[in-house]
């Protein structure tokens, strides 16, 4: 009896000691194959150095289908991981909009959330043989020092199945939340510096407004005047948006030396010019920007052609009269390809990205360039036709039914990432007496460049009646938002710092679905096992325990 009491007291003492120790020592073990509960190093660094408290309100909760419930659990697990790194500086709560029962109060809440940038999603489900519709908010609001930013948690490629899209959203939870925290907490001193090259495009500033506003949320934005003497310095990245004016030799030299010295560059460049399109037609003319030799040295070539793709976005067109009024219909416009092919790349720029829409796209080829790794990121569909410039482009063509057999020119690259040590175009061309010889480098440190053969990828539409710009990638005719802005911002994030928060986009969570046929066939057996199994185990444990006690105390 005395030994039993001693053992009991020892167990109690051990439990008390473990509880006291757990208050001072915290550790987690991630035993999953994909390390799904382990935050990226950049996220850990961000959270460990938070200057002040961050609060997160999550509106994805309540009575949800299993897929959305899994996404909700992923958000909570991620936020628990954030708290493990940041301690009390991270707080969060889940708010269910359905808890507001008053119709007027609920409508006010919905309006308020939409004003804050959080938009609802209609969720359809079948309950008891009835089709039900429910409004959910798959997002969160991150707040810091009086500032806040919305976070969309339901993101992924809409061409994927609903299950795959939810899994892609699951994979992106850490990135979406961490990038929002980074956006709010970073100061002017620790921001990267992005330079916008102007003076080479006739596109009005309003057509770039959404992208530039988004860049300014995360970076210090500067405007580069290439006519000023001297090199490009003090910048982490140069953005070249849809140039339509040729570069001079001196400007080419500045770009060359900026990259050779480790600067990063992002080009959105056309291979042809299309000024306007009419029903009768206009010609796409070859566009010479004097960048060919520089791009060729880096490892790519933009061709003087225009792509027609069967996988395309529509445009409104008058297809005839309906009574005494014109009959306007949306018809496929094969010069506006939807770029939903990201090749075999697992680069975080395009991982789980939705479709990107292009306008009058040219093709891009890769060429031999020593020491440069080339990664195609944006590609057309396999069902394409190429027109060499000058090429006739007419709206009347959209009225005709295309012959799929003529769209057989395969997949073509539209955007390519280049990484490595770049060789200068001016190597062996700068003489000792040349004023540019001072500080000239023929080969420098490793850098990164991304070149896209469509300048319109980063141009937003404008509502001219209200004089307000539409979001980048928004199609005002179909009310669809393409991923053009996500692509551009991901590209800037990766080019500037590939080991930053964007590294979290590489997270992979493998779907392991059950075999539905086997589950349905053995449903009764599995249900019986789940119901009776725990009871049987308890009975066996109790029986063994009684046998042991009788042997020990029966004598």
UniProtKB/TrEMBL annotation:
Keyword Ion transport annotated: no
Tagged with keyword Transmembrane: yes
Record organism: Spirosoma foliorum
Official protein name in the record: Gliding motility-associated ABC transporter substrate-binding protein GldG
Pfam families reported in the protein's UniProt record: ABC_transp_aux, DUF7088
The DUF7088 domain, residue ranges: 33-143
Positions of the ABC-type uncharacterised transport system domain: 191-491
Keyword terms: Membrane, Transmembrane, Transmembrane helix
